[in-house]
Please model this.
Amino acid sequence: MKITALAGGVGASKLLLGLTRAMDPRDLTVIVNTGDDIVLHGLYICPDLDIVTYTLAGSVNPQTGWGLAGDTFHTLKALARYAGEQWFHLGDRDLATHIHRTDLLWRGQPLAQVTDGIRREWGVASRILPMCEHPVPTTLLTNLGELHFQEYLVQHRAEPSILDIRFEGVESARPAPGVLEALREADGILICPSNPLISIGPILAVPGVREAIWERRDRCVAVSPLVGGKSLKGPSDKMLAECLIEPTSCGVALLYEDVASVLVIDPSDSPLCPDIIERGMRPVLLPSIMHTDADKERLARGVLSLFDELNAARA
Ligand code: FO1
Model:
């Protein structure tokens, strides 16, 4: 069974790791958000692509869910002499990835090819695709003014209130090579438990992507990133509330009802089932909190059984 997943960073990677243990990882393609990408110190940094790659390689820092396990920060400390204290923590070994990527991009290699080379160097068997190759930075209009998503999240610890979200230039972006094919050829499409506004939102906003999934809605399953009205990771709950969307799996259903037929929610959220059904989605209860590798694999196996069931119903 070929699975194509839409993913942000840390939350998605947990489920993706479970999937690579529950299925042949070569049958998994991951389409990753690049709205979080940022240029710092002249380096092109793609946090979500790197988080997915390092996680599937078994090398991510397990404490943070981003960066490399056991990395050091000597370069960043040395840089403080010239550029002052840095708010975005780039580890020494992580920097090698950003230097290599930036070098290849400067030489004219497209981002999808660079990304594929990096995942191969890390021994990752699943295909990892950027959503598009053209930079589409997520900009938030906040009470402090316009902020790049990383400034909002990391520098300002997601404290400012959000007035608007923009994916700069997305109207003229094109899906990266392989993205639409991976959606059209998938037996199952999975929307990972990532922030629906700023991780999955940018992917769906790339022209052609939402339509391609809409056509295959009957085989698309979304996993809610909220349990009991709280985000599993990051500020999804706060951001949804500020965008006047109910910060529960019901609000998530509102954002995905046109593209996914099934919404996986945690059993503790079962009282939300009638509202989710009202939105035209089928709620499925699966334990969604992933602390251990066993939790990740159990959720992944539950999602794979759902895809089997959906395929059997279509046959
Ligand atoms: N997140 C932080 O909260 N603080 C950081 O200093 C930080 C650095 C960082 C460096 C490389 C990288 O790939 C990711 C990094 N992240 C950091 C995570 C990142 O900001 C977000 O989690 C994602 O963009 C959202 O998925």
About this structure: The pocket of FO1 is lined by residues 8-10, 36, 47-48, 50-51, 66-67, 88-90, 94, 150, 153-154 (CB under 6 Å). The mean pLDDT is 97.
